[in-house]
């Protein structure tokens, strides 16, 4: 099944695409735990390689509480992405509310040593309504 990327952002020749899905089998709604998985594709449409150095996430839950998450690379990697190439990874996000959102940026270094931040597009986290 082909993944449908629902959100994208372009910064300095780097496109970040996001597909997000609610995972009821990983959630424990009766315990106030909802879980989403997101698939990120980073496409390098610039004319030189870029290396992903760090990530910065702003995660907001349905009550407006914000968590900031910073770290090296993505899922333990700092991929070097050649011109015309892409890097994909999958990760997850738990929340204590049935809706929220994520957004942020990746810090990159180009082959010439210059650094820039590529936007991670805002995307909502929304569990489907449950019949009550």
Automatic annotation (TrEMBL):
<dbReference type="InterPro" id="IPR050718">
    <property type="entry name" value="ApaG-like"/>
</dbReference>
<protein>
    <recommendedName>
        <fullName>Protein ApaG</fullName>
    </recommendedName>
</protein>
<dbReference type="Pfam" id="PF04379">
    <property type="entry name" value="DUF525"/>
</dbReference>
<feature type="domain" description="ApaG">
    <location>
        <begin position="8"/>
        <end position="132"/>
    </location>
</feature>
<dbReference type="InterPro" id="IPR036767">
    <property type="entry name" value="ApaG_sf"/>
</dbReference>
<dbReference type="InterPro" id="IPR007474">
    <property type="entry name" value="ApaG_domain"/>
</dbReference>
<dbReference type="InterPro" id="IPR023065">
    <property type="entry name" value="Uncharacterised_ApaG"/>
</dbReference>
């Amino acid at each position: 099944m082909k993944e449908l990327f629902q959100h994208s952002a372009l910064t300095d020749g780097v496109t970040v695409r996001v597909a997000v899905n609610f995972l009821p089998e990983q959630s424990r709604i009766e315990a106030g735990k909802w879980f989403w998985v997101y698939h990120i594709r980073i496409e390098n449409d610039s004319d030189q390689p870029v290396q992903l150095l760090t990530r910065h996430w702003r995660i907001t839950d349905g009550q407006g509480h914000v968590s900031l998450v910073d770290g090296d690379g993505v899922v333990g990697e700092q991929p070097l992405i050649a011109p015309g190439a892409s890097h994909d990874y999958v990760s997850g996000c738990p929340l204590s509310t049935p809706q929220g959102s994520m957004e942020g940026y990746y810090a990159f270094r180009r082959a010439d040593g210059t650094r820039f931040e590529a936007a991670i597009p805002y995307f909502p986290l929304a569990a489907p309504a449950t019949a009550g």
